[in-house]
Amino acid sequence: MDQEKMGKFIAQLRTEYGYTQKDIGDMLGISDNSVSKWERGINAPDISTLTTLSKIFKVSVQEILNGERKFKKKEIDKEHHKKVLEVSNLYKSFGKRKILQNINFDIYEGDIVGLIGPNGAGKTTLIKTILNLYKADSGNVKICGFDTKKNLEEALSKIGCIIENPDMYQNLSGRRNLQITSLINNLKDKDYINSMIKFVKLEDRIDDKVKKYSLGMKQRLGLANALIKKPKLLILDEPTNGLDPLGIKELREILKKISREENMSILISSHILSEVENICDRILIIDDGKINSEFGIEEVKYKNISLEEEFFSKTNKKDEQV
Ligand SMILES: Nc1ncnc2c1ncn2[C@@H]1O[C@H](COP(=O)(O)OP(=O)(O)OP(=O)(O)O)[C@@H](O)[C@H]1O
Ligand SMILES: [Mg+2]
Predict the structure, then answer these.
(1) What distance in Å separates the CA atoms of residue 170 and residue 54, rounded to the nearest whole number?
(2) What CATH number should be reported for the domain whose range is 87-315?
(3) CA of 288 relative to ligand 2 center, distance in Å
(4) pLDDT in tens, the chain (322 residues)
(5) pTM above 0.90, yes or no
(6) Is 232 helix (H, G, I), strand (E, B) or coil?
(7) Which residues pair with 282 in a beta bridge?
């Protein structure tokens, strides 16, 4: 780490963008004294902190290290660092079997987070517990600041999700399904439905009954349905299941676009590590009901290894299916 360049980066944030050392420290959960040391070139952050910094200020780690000035003022926004999901001390068991054990993590606005782990690790259980479809034994979930124990309705109103298969009325058309979701959620913007239909490329088939759709079409309709609420957080459990390579590519592009344009956060569980690597900013590895590591994708790139290599080194499950 070039401490001098790091110092220049911090100095630039302070002098040109008006952040104090305390602001930067608060965002990272460290003391302003540490930030001050970085600025003076006495010390430097570790790669994990550097990754968080790069995320907050929307520059790559390399740009920070190279002392490049590629970011623009309007892109830097303290609001970006708002938490849309806070999971703390979450436990869930089925009968005597402990499934989730002390799960802690946060998702920030605009972040795309990949949840990966072996079969049976607890991904779907975690997602369902966050959504209150399963009752947690203990622990807390906050969505956009709303505690699901106290304000479940407000909390869930901020989330769009697809878990397993999208739940649709099979005998109604795709359009009618979307209209119903819109009605239930008291949304008045009719044009938005049309823009979502276009967005997921279902214009040609939207007036057919859902039962006539292929799996990929159902997935795309499910996505449009989840997006209609303009959620702050989109949760997708293995969304590429059953999609062909083109479908996977299109989904990736849609998710990246919507996250960028709407500053929407996405939590996505998947077994396709190359896809996760391609789309996600941060990774959570869950193994045996525990989060065994959390890191920014930049960290993997920085180490010059693939996510698959990182995954196997963290889970020791070299010969099993991911
Ligand atoms: N409703 C349930 N009742 C009892 N046990 C359950 C239930 N749902 C899940 N489990 C158990 O919880 C553990 C975690 O399952 P979960 O479905 O969360 O795994 P997963 O990480 O989503 O796996 P996969 O990659 O196969 O989808 C498994 O041992 C599973 O058998
Ligand atoms: Mg699952």
Answers:
(1) 45
(2) 3.40.50.300
(3) 13
(4) 677 888 888 888 888 777 888 888 888 888 888 889 888 888 888 877 888 887 777 777 777 777 665 555 444 454 546 899 999 999 999 999 999 999 999 998 888 999 999 999 999 999 999 999 999 999 999 999 999 999 999 999 999 998 877 778 999 999 999 999 998 888 877 788 998 999 888 999 999 999 999 988 998 999 999 999 889 999 999 988 878 888 888 888 889 888 888 889 999 999 989 889 989 989 999 999 999 989 888 778 777 788 888 888 888 654 555 5
(5) no
(6) coil
(7) 113, 296
Q: Map tokens 């698959």 to a residue.
A: 308
The domains of the chain are located at 3-80, 87-315
Ligand 2 (ion): which residues have CB within 5 A? Answer: 123-124
Q: Which of 91, 92, 94 has most ligand 1 atoms within 8 Å of CB, for mutation?
A: 94
The residue whose CA has the least distance to atom 31 of ligand 1 is: 120
* Strand 233-237 relative to strand 265-269, pairing: parallel
CA 126 – ligand 2 centroid, Å: 9
CATH number belonging to domain 3-80: 1.10.260.40
Spatial distance between the Cα atoms of 186 and 181, rounded to a whole number of angstroms: 8
